[in-house]
Design brief:
Blueprint: E1 5-7, H1 11-17, H2 22-41, E2 49-52, H3 54-63, H4 70-85, E3 88-89, E4 95-96, E5 98-104, E6 114-118, H5 122-132, H6 135-153, H7 159-172, H8 182-200, H9 208-222, H10 226-235, E7 243-249, E8 260-265, E9 277-282, H11 288-291, E10 297-298, H12 302-305, H13 307-324, E11 328-335, E12 338-346, H14 351-363, H15 369-375, H16 378-384, E13 388-389, H17 391-399, E14 403-406, E15 408-411, E16 414-420, H18 423-431, E17 437-441, H19 449-454, E18 457-460, H20 468-476, E19 480-482, E20 488-490, E21 495-498, E22 501-504, E23 508-512, E24 517-520, E25 525-526, H21 534-547, E26 566-570, H22 574-582, E27 588-592, H23 603-611, H24 615-639, E28 644-648, H25 661-674, H26 680-692, H27 704-710, H28 713-732, E29 737-742, H29 748-769, E30 776-781, H30 784-788, H31 790-796, E31 799-802, H32 804-812, H33 816-829, H34 843-860, E32 865-868, H35 876-885, E33 889-892, H36 897-910, H37 928-942
Parallel strand pairs: 3-4, 16-17, 17-18, 18-19, 26-27, 26-33, 27-28, 28-29, 29-30, 30-31, 31-32
Antiparallel strand pairs: 1-2, 2-7, 5-6, 5-7, 8-9, 8-11, 9-10, 11-12, 13-25, 14-24, 15-19, 16-23, 20-21, 21-22, 23-24
Helix pairs in contact: 1-2, 5-6, 6-8, 7-8, 14-15, 14-16, 14-21, 15-21, 16-36, 21-36, 22-24, 23-24, 24-28, 25-26, 27-29, 28-29, 29-31, 31-34, 35-36
The chain binds adenosine-5'-diphosphate and magnesium ion (2 copies).
């Protein structure tokens, strides 16, 4: 018979079953169960418990009922717990109460259900009162059970219990739950049982076993609850994992003022600082702290009230952090001065905290630098470079009286948006109306998560740093301010008041999760600087060191790189190049020269050049452009002193530089109608010329190398400008490495035609200026034919750069400009495409073309330099592929460079050749998210 249930002290057996892997243990008993078992083994005080496996959950999902043997095994395990605790389930004299807790492999905080105080019935309550002499505690526990059981197991609306309690308190003139006395709670139990009966037509069950069975089933079911499913989608967690169920002896934080319950992080999850951050409530139970029902006190203050328990708590949490070598998120309860640990898990954190904690822990010697690099995700690096409000703008807003309130800075970042007072609206206006929304609530609940995810920011008037809103926002990187108590929200009238100011739904506000400040209206944002983020700079330096390590790649064939990827940037102007350098780029992979043609002083000359009727007239116009281009390149070389700069010769069809045909036509007609003659003839000539340039498929028409062959003067001028600038720089002592890139090659014959002419110009300039420097001529690989004939192309081209935007467009035959609008989204939704191939490289098609092109290209020319300059160069998954197939570098927008540096290091660490690796294989537990993504990928592949 299958073993569905494991006792608290059976961790060895689970490990055996999992083949010794801790990840496997988590798969079987869930993250919470694994943590509880592990703590028990380490003699951390954990109340006795047993765990129902995820397999049991999956079997239940399939059959719609408990698998054979499960219930019997639960009862047997319950006996063992009774023996251990000396209490009995359902007993009048010395009753055992238990909690029934969800716990999947990957923690999904607040997404599934937990029921406390199971085993309480009318009879048991009486017995407990006699036993403890504490009737307030017993009735408080009982009313919690009826409410939790009602809402979770029987699906009764929260309001069915919340409303009667609120009116009861109002009648009594109470504000807070702590004012409630024993007889009050007793009365409430009666009211709740009545409400329960009203709502589901049955009495609240008085059989403890029935309570337990139904609770187990309800936790199983919560795996498929709406919010759990939404959460898994967002986090990329597979639906097939299932949840475990932990049945755990109750310990009570609500027996009096020598009792407490709380949650804490071993380091600050918002900033990463190495200080315990947590909150507790005296005389409370469960997640009262998280629910924000009462204002909780900082854990540090517990020292005053319960010094012994506090000391023990600090010792245990320090040990846990060391054991798991990561920041822990713990839940605890103190019952009459005795500490009990109820959960430990790797804590969720902001991007900022992730970086700081990783770097600190490596410096503390807790983890290796490689592990530190692996602990941070590319998305987190990205988040740190996202816009923030700048101080000046905030000061100004304050002076202008736009300051509204200050709350707890729960999750950093700037959010500007229109306010909505519930999750559905925040989501609806974001999705359907494409608005930037801010979700504003008194506090949030698990049911609100979809609105939070859709919103740009979250603001609550209640709750603290560990409240639900704060935890969820941090996890998703949503800027969030909580507990801004100056804000009074009227959910019925759908307005919020701050002093005199009244804001309606749809009004704009600015929320600064970094400082906790909230402003009316829109405040401008600015880019944060990388240089000021010391820990991030350190982490990226470590990432670069990993990528630069020898033998992180195998030399597939002579010439293949054995180090990891370099990161270059796409930059057209010197200022972009400087930013790229400061962000850590070590080359320019794409400088688009045509952008420079659009500048107002140049465009008329460009048009004249295009319209020229003779080669001389064209050359005259080009001679006017030459000094401009030379200056552009000079600035680039100077900014990239010593690093390679790839300059792409003119690529787009010429009509892009001409006035719009329809507009011209209109103007000509208008002039005719009005009888104006001045300039008419010129306009008509221009119109005729533009008409003559019309193409049905301009993207596949006269552009790239084709244009250069039919009109070589332009690229001849460009090459001259490049070489003259390079020569001038060399003479000034700037080190240059120009690489000239010919776009849109489809056959080597094109290169054979154009390249020698250009090389001659280069040589001529060098001898005119009497300088020498190294240079390269190469091509973009963006037409499938070029990829397929790479061995031929490489006989001429000294480097390849994959232009994956066009290569994707032409390999799929999808028009990039129309596909997204017309059918790509449907394709992704229907699973015809796993991802948008313009965002993430299609490994099986486009990626395979690339792989072959590199292999064959290096057969013809082993030292062939290979890069990528399409949009994919900044996408982590695509970067990984580039690493795997032997690119020398990836090139992306300057803003993505830090992200790409981290992604390149991850690729190196995740694909170390088995034998040759120079460093010891890190005993890395991969960051949870990574593992999840992989699992998802695997599942996706299987499909
Ligand atoms: P979640 O996964 O949502 O955190 P938990 O299963 O951890 O749910 O339960 C939530 C809270 O309920 C815990 O943090 C703890 O305060 C309380 N709790 C759960 N089990 C017990 C127990 N056996 N004794 C006392 N409190 C408990
Ligand atoms: Mg919790
Ligand atoms: Mg918990």
């Amino acid at each position: 018979m299958s073993k569905w249930v494991y006792l608290y002290n059976e961790v060895k057996e689970v490990e055996k079953r999992a083949g010794g892997s801790w990840d496997g243990v988590k798969s079987i008993v869930g993250g919470k169960g694994a943590g509880l078992m592990d703590m028990t083994r380490a003699n951390v005080p954990v109340p006795p418990f047993f765990t129902v496996t995820t397999e049991a959950c999956n079997a239940y999902q399939k059959a719609g009922k408990f698998p054979a043997g499960l219930w019997e095994q639960e009862l047997t395990a319950l006996k063992a717990i009774e023996k251990k605790t000396g209490k009995k389930f359902g007993d009048k004299k010395n009753p055992l109460l238990v909690s029934c807790r969800s716990g999947a492999k990957f923690s999904m905080p607040g997404m599934m259900n937990t029921i406390l105080n199971i085993g309480l019935t009318d009879v048991v309550a009486e017995g407990m009162i006699k036993e403890t002499g504490n009737d307030r505690f017993v009735w408080d526990s009982y009313r919690r059970l009826v409410e939790m059981f009602g809402t979770v197991v029987m699906d009764i609306e929260d309001e069915a219990f919340e409303h009667p309690l609120a009116s009861f308190k109002e009648k009594k003139g109470y504000k807070l739950d702590i004012e409630m006395r024993a007889e009050d709670w007793k009365e409430v139990v009666g009211i709740y049982k009545e409400a329960y009966k009203q709502a589901c037509g049955q009495e609240f069950p008085q059989d403890p076993n029935k309570q337990l069975a139904l609770a187990t089933e309800a936790v199983f079911k919560s795996w498929n609850g709406k919010r759990a499913v939404a959460y898994r989608r967002k986090e990329g967690i597979s639906d097939t994992l299932g949840t475990a169920v932990n049945i755990c002896t109750m310990v009570f934080g609500n027996m009096g003022d020598d009792c407490a319950t709380g949650v804490a992080f071993t380091r600050n999850p918002s900033t990463g600082e190495k200080v315990m951050m947590g909150e507790y409530l005296l005389n409370a139970q469960g997640e009262d702290v998280v629910a924000g029902i009462r204002n909780a006190d900082e854990v540090a203050n517990l020292k005053k009230y319960m010094p012994k328990a506090y000391k023990q708590f600090m010792e245990i949490t320090a040990r846990l952090e060391k054991h798991y070598t990561d920041m822990q998120d713990v839940e605890f309860t103190i019952e009459r001065g005795t500490l009990w640990m109820l959960q430990t898990r790797v804590g969720k954190r902001t991007a900022k905290a992730a970086v700081k904690i990783a770097v600190d822990m490596a410096n503390e010697g807790l983890i290796t630098r490689d592990q530190a690099v692996q602990r941070v995700t590319p998305d987190q690096v990205d988040a740190l470079l996202h816009p923030q409000f700048d101080d000046a703008a905030m000061n100004l807003a304050e002076k202008e009286g736009k300051f509204l309130a200050k709350g707890v800075n729960a999750s950093p970042g700037a959010a500007v948006g229109q306010i909505y007072f519930d999750a559905d609206k925040a989501e609806q206006y974001a999705k359907e109306h494409k608005q930037d929304t801010i979700m504003v609530r008194p506090f949030t609940k698990p049911d609100d998560v979809h609105g939070m995810i859709a919103a740009k920011g979250v603001l609550t008037s209640e709750g603290g740093a560990t409240s639900h809103a704060a935890v969820v926002a941090r996890q998703f990187g949503i800027p969030c301010v909580v507990g801004a108590s100056a804000i009074k929200i009227d959910l019925e009238k759908r307005v919020m008041h701050v002093g005199e100011t009244v804001l309606n739904e749809g009004d704009w506000i600015s929320v600064d999760g970094t400082t906790g400040k909230v402003f009316a209206g829109k405040i401008p944002t600015s880019e944060p600087s990388l240089e000021e983020q010391k820990e991030l700079m350190t982490l990226l330096k470590w990432a670069d060191e990993i990528s630069a390590r020898k033998n992180v790649r195998e030399e597939v064939r002579p010439g293949y790189p054995t180090r990891g990827l370099q990161v270059w940037a796409n930059a057209d102007y010197p200022k972009d190049a400087r930013r790229a350098r400061s962000y850590g780029a070590v080359g320019i992979g794409l400088c688009r020269t045509e952008h420079m043609f659009f500048e107002p002083e140049r465009l008329p000359i460009v048009q004249r050049m295009i319209l020229a009727e003779s080669s001389e007239a064209r050359t005259d116009a080009l001679n006017l452009l030459l000094p401009h281009q030379r200056k552009d390149f000079d600035g680039l070389f100077e900014a990239m002193d010593g690093f390679p700069v790839i300059i792409r010769l003119i690529d787009p069809p010429l009509h892009e530089f001409m006035p719009d045909e329809e507009k011209l036509m209109e103007e000509v007609i208008t002039m005719h109608v009005k009888g104006e003659t001045e300039g008419l003839e010129e306009k008509e000539k221009l119109l005729a010329a533009v008409k003559g340039m019309h193409e049905s498929n301009p993207m596949m028409g006269l552009r790239g190398v084709r244009l250069s062959i039919s009109m070589p003067e332009i690229v001849e001028m460009q090459v001259r400008a490049i070489f003259e600038a390079a020569a001038d720089c060399t003479l000034r002592g700037v080190k240059v490495k120009p690489e000239i890139m010919i776009p849109l090659t489809g056959t080597v014959k094109e290169l054979e035609w154009i390249q020698p002419r250009l090389e001659r110009i280069g040589k001529a300039v060098m001898s005119e200026k009497k300088v020498k420097f190294a240079y390269k001529f190469g091509t973009m690989i963006e037409i499938p034919r070029a990829a397929v004939t790479a061995d031929h192309i490489a006989t001429k081209a000294q480097f390849f750069s994959f232009g994956t935007n066009d290569l994707t467009q032409m390999t799929f035959g999808y028009s990039r400009d129309d596909a997204e609008r017309n059918f790509l989204i449907t394709y992704v939704q229907e699973g015809i495409l796993v991802k948008n191939p313009f965002q993430t490289l299609d490994r099986n098609g486009v990626g395979k073309l690339m792989k072959n092109a590199i292999f064959e290209g290096r057969a013809a020319r082993p030292e062939l330099e290979v890069g990528i300059c399409g949009e994919h160069g900044g996408d982590p998954e695509s970067i990984e592929w580039c690493h795997m197939i032997g690119n020398n570098y990836v090139s992306c927008s300057p803003f993505r460079v830090p992200v790409a540096r981290l992604a390149a290091a991850h690729a190196a660490l995740n694909h170390m050749p088995v034998k040759k690796a120079v460093t010891k294989k890190p005993a890395a537990k991969k960051p949870v998210k990574k593992v999840v993504k992989k699992a998802v990928k695997k599942v996706a592949k299987k499909k």
